[in-house]
């Protein structure tokens, strides 16, 4: 945990001593974000702490260094850390007013997570008008930007202009402009399901979903679908397929694929087999128009079968199809004709 | 047609009052059905009993305001049809006092109503089973009379010897297949009172044999009494003495000496007792319904042919399969309410019963082997719409010539891994299961069919969510009814949610069920639906009690504005609302049929006149013909609706618990 300590800025940076300048250069070129006192002593080969402090103070005065407070994990004691600030950054801060610089430093400290205006106000202890004025000024100079958080859509969150918001803020690959991209998700769900279905049932989507050679069923044997010889796809295989197919340019991690599979399980389109493989349900294949028997009309009445709600897919199309073209039924009417549960709301 | 709930003095109830509809969905449906069978007044008496649960004759007379003689007739009819049961006030069922009816309490009984509710399907089922009209006629008569003796049925065919033998043969087939069962006096008594009486009797006997002075703790004493009560009560319900009496009569008494010779000729070794009243066994019908539903489920989860094979397997064990409504489970519920510490049904006792029943599912008589299914295929294949040729090439085989040239889909990703050759041969041990059978069928095609049957049976074991079959040892399967049926019901319930409400509702329901308790934010994160949509769906589901809301306060003052709301599902509550809604809908369908019949009464009366019948085209106006066609169309649709709703009731009413 670190929190910035506000430094006073001075107009020019060329006035610092040689040692201080070299210290700054070494700190920026080394690439580390922060240094302890002993790190700096070792790096600069300085004889005394006093010498280090005078140089550090020099840099601090010019806004080229900031002091961070660090707390050790196992102790309550807090230590000091020194973090270099690039020359351009220092110049940028130099041009700001004190209030703006303070607000800017808090926003910079919030990093890719961003900071909420209310938190900013509480931390800086400034009046709301002042905070808003500073934010407006910084935004107009493209030093900071406002981002929408998926977690808290109502909050106004600021972060440095050049930073990309973190996944927590953007919501990951499922969000586009902070909105859940349902079209993208739905198409990915279909792709994943279809891939698993093609691995669970042989040739289920060939020839417009009609089972070939007039057969009434065509399935893989049981030992392929379960047990030790199970050849159903795993998350890794699904992920490989998605990456290889080029259906999306968005990088999807294994956990993203897992969440897609989970959704398909909640939809009862996929099932988990042996805790690591996925198989698709036959019902989902039937609903998608697959697994049809040649010469059998799906929408014909099934006099020899008991009524099953799972056969609803056989009537849905018929209701909205050409038969009622003259008087197209509304959704509500369809609903009632199909299931006859019109008294539900009254119960 | 409705009328006020309260009747004026001396008014005869000729139409059903509104309370029959509003008091409960079941009352609405049953009174509608009874109205058609026994008339408005019978239905009204049933509704009064349903309101009060238990009524003495005098009180019933007071409430119904019917004439005493009329009420007696109605009660006798309803008792005969098993829609009403009785129990002696004094606990003695054979009371012989002057005014017998005053000594009894009367209770509504669902069993008789169920038989009427399913009457058409029962007759259709029997006709399909025997492909003969006689058994169906017998069952139709039994259903309409409640119960019937063979002698009573003989009355109208006494002179026709051939017909008598045909009847006797049909009765025998029905009794052997358990469609008809003997009925004793216990069938007309209230189960709770009968149980209570048994318990009290056992307790008194036990306490007499083991007086208080003996060192038996009260808990142990109660445990012993309950155990003996359970055994005695089950014996009472089974009425074994009636089954013993079932076969010892002959036709001689009825038709003279030649009848016995005829009986030998036609191969009826022992006749059905002509004086024993027989009733239709609804439990047996439920077994058939369960088989049909499970086979239909297999069709949607595994495939057409696997479903056919499963239907054959189900048919093989159907007669010996466990009851759909388990008597043991019911007994556990009854036992939970007796004794000094009534803490309700102990979940462990319930679990124990389930385990016992699960073990029974695996008993020898219920085991399924490939040759059993093959035999069923040969004899009943046509009935279940499956033939040997249907089975050929239904299982993927890498060596199949049809597949040569096509890419092996399972290995699309792992082309380095050699394809696992599917086991398509029956192993030696499996082949030896039925030596006698094997000796008669040795051809290659038979072997292929046997292998394919085995493959399909194995396919049925792969479903983890709905265990259609379990394989105990290679080639030996059993149907885990105890486990399977509740899973099937839950799955069907979820499918109703999906189709009636929205697929998104199913997604939400499944997620909440998995997490037990969750909030909107977690839902939105994991099921990838917009929060606003989730809220809309949750609202819908909440109305139907599919989900429940729990308030989680965040502040000490439990301020509602700061509280979080979590959701959970309660399957039983949801199911109950669902079932009641469906039952109510069934009542409404019958109501709409009554209404339209009333609207078209003049036309229908005209059509049913003897001089008009068959000459409708000539004697009716064009507008009347159009109207008549519309009426028939409406009736057809309404009955289809009714049958569809009833198929859901099969699952939610009878298959939801043990």
UniProtKB/TrEMBL annotation, chain A:
<keyword id="KW-0539">Nucleus</keyword>
<dbReference type="InterPro" id="IPR016049">
    <property type="entry name" value="RNA_pol_Rpc34-like"/>
</dbReference>
<dbReference type="GO" id="GO:0006383">
    <property type="term" value="P:transcription by RNA polymerase III"/>
</dbReference>
<dbReference type="InterPro" id="IPR036388">
    <property type="entry name" value="WH-like_DNA-bd_sf"/>
</dbReference>
<dbReference type="InterPro" id="IPR007832">
    <property type="entry name" value="RNA_pol_Rpc34"/>
</dbReference>
<dbReference type="Pfam" id="PF05158">
    <property type="entry name" value="RNA_pol_Rpc34"/>
</dbReference>
<comment type="similarity">
    <text>Belongs to the eukaryotic RPC34/RPC39 RNA polymerase subunit family.</text>
</comment>
<dbReference type="GO" id="GO:0005654">
    <property type="term" value="C:nucleoplasm"/>
</dbReference>
<dbReference type="InterPro" id="IPR036390">
    <property type="entry name" value="WH_DNA-bd_sf"/>
</dbReference>
<dbReference type="GO" id="GO:0005666">
    <property type="term" value="C:RNA polymerase III complex"/>
</dbReference>
<protein>
    <recommendedName>
        <fullName>DNA-directed RNA polymerase III subunit RPC6</fullName>
    </recommendedName>
</protein>
<keyword id="KW-0240">DNA-directed RNA polymerase</keyword>
<dbReference type="GO" id="GO:0005737">
    <property type="term" value="C:cytoplasm"/>
</dbReference>
<keyword id="KW-0804">Transcription</keyword>
From TrEMBL, chain B:
<dbReference type="Pfam" id="PF05645">
    <property type="entry name" value="RNA_pol_Rpc82"/>
</dbReference>
<dbReference type="InterPro" id="IPR055207">
    <property type="entry name" value="POLR3C_WHD"/>
</dbReference>
<dbReference type="InterPro" id="IPR013197">
    <property type="entry name" value="RNA_pol_III_RPC82-rel_HTH"/>
</dbReference>
<feature type="domain" description="RNA polymerase III subunit RPC82-related helix-turn-helix">
    <location>
        <begin position="28"/>
        <end position="84"/>
    </location>
</feature>
<protein>
    <recommendedName>
        <fullName>DNA-directed RNA polymerase III subunit RPC3</fullName>
    </recommendedName>
</protein>
<dbReference type="InterPro" id="IPR036388">
    <property type="entry name" value="WH-like_DNA-bd_sf"/>
</dbReference>
<feature type="domain" description="RNA polymerase III Rpc82 C -terminal">
    <location>
        <begin position="170"/>
        <end position="486"/>
    </location>
</feature>
<dbReference type="InterPro" id="IPR039748">
    <property type="entry name" value="RPC3"/>
</dbReference>
<keyword id="KW-0804">Transcription</keyword>
<comment type="similarity">
    <text>Belongs to the RNA polymerase beta chain family.</text>
</comment>
<comment type="subunit">
    <text>Component of the RNA polymerase III (Pol III) complex consisting of 17 subunits.</text>
</comment>
<feature type="domain" description="DNA-directed RNA polymerase III subunit RPC3 winged-helix">
    <location>
        <begin position="495"/>
        <end position="569"/>
    </location>
</feature>
<comment type="function">
    <text>DNA-dependent RNA polymerase catalyzes the transcription of DNA into RNA using the four ribonucleoside triphosphates as substrates. Specific core component of RNA polymerase III which synthesizes small RNAs, such as 5S rRNA and tRNAs.</text>
</comment>
<dbReference type="Pfam" id="PF08221">
    <property type="entry name" value="HTH_9"/>
</dbReference>
<keyword id="KW-0240">DNA-directed RNA polymerase</keyword>
<dbReference type="InterPro" id="IPR008806">
    <property type="entry name" value="RNA_pol_III_Rpc82_C"/>
</dbReference>
<dbReference type="GO" id="GO:0005666">
    <property type="term" value="C:RNA polymerase III complex"/>
</dbReference>
<dbReference type="Pfam" id="PF22536">
    <property type="entry name" value="WHD_POLR3C"/>
</dbReference>
<dbReference type="GO" id="GO:0003697">
    <property type="term" value="F:single-stranded DNA binding"/>
</dbReference>
<dbReference type="GO" id="GO:0006351">
    <property type="term" value="P:DNA-templated transcription"/>
</dbReference>
<dbReference type="Pfam" id="PF20912">
    <property type="entry name" value="RPC3_helical"/>
</dbReference>
<keyword id="KW-0539">Nucleus</keyword>
